[in-house]
Amino acid sequence: MGVPSSLLTANSTVGRQAPLPLPLPKKPTLGSLLTNGQSSVQTFRPKKKFEPGTLRYSLHKQAQASLNSGINLRDAVRLPPREDMNDWLAVHVVDFFNRINLIYGTISDYCTEESCPRMSGGPSTEVFSPSLFEYLWVDGQKFKKPTPLPAPQYISHLMDWVEGQINNEEIFPVSVDVRFPRTFVPTCKKILARLFPVFVHVYIHHFDRLVAIGAEAHVNTCYKHFYYFITEFDLVSQKELEPLTEMTRKVCKDVVILSPRHR
């Protein structure tokens, strides 16, 4: 399989070193963190928060309350009546960044340059295989051409780039009096498309660790929430979702996914 095009064109601000390995959380911790969106342990990088009293803080709390109430996730992702789609999208992009950051943090001490020499979803090989989903990094600055990187480096550059986007007030305006730019939705689509490979890598290469720390069900719920949101608003192409087709069928049992030749 080729490399999804949206993963090859985004600009990035790089410079921070790869994080040191993190201690594994106790088994109940990850579930409570993913449910409540709060962290009592060190995560892969600082959590992005909304300012109390703002519209997006209220939407964030509304979305969290829906999740905590046990509402069907497919219903939970739908745009609430009379709410602005851009605000709803901003809240979820930031929330998914925080959650995926936390998920990766729980296995990052097992994801090393030696164990994961390529950012991929499939067998680790030095020769590109048609059956291997491999993601190459390019940022137009340090990496001007698509470059294979060890998974920890790739994810570090990726999180730097996402963090730079969501902290840029010209893209994610803080005040409700400031309009979202025309580039906002395309940027959000690119962010979500670039975060998806973290699920791919964690599921395919580190699933045993998720099971070992009792996090499998909680990560499945996070993935299900992510998948329902991006498909509800057509934010990521089906081609880019192909690496986790079988996992999606198992986790999202009400989803019908056609094979490529039947689309």
UniProtKB/TrEMBL annotation:
InterPro entries linked to this entry: MOB_kinase_act_fam, MOB_kinase_act_sf
Keywords: Metal-binding, Zinc
Full protein name: Uncharacterized protein
Gene3D superfamilies associated with the record: MOB kinase activator
Listed Pfam families: Mob1_phocein
Binding of Zn(2+), residues: 111, 116, 201, 206
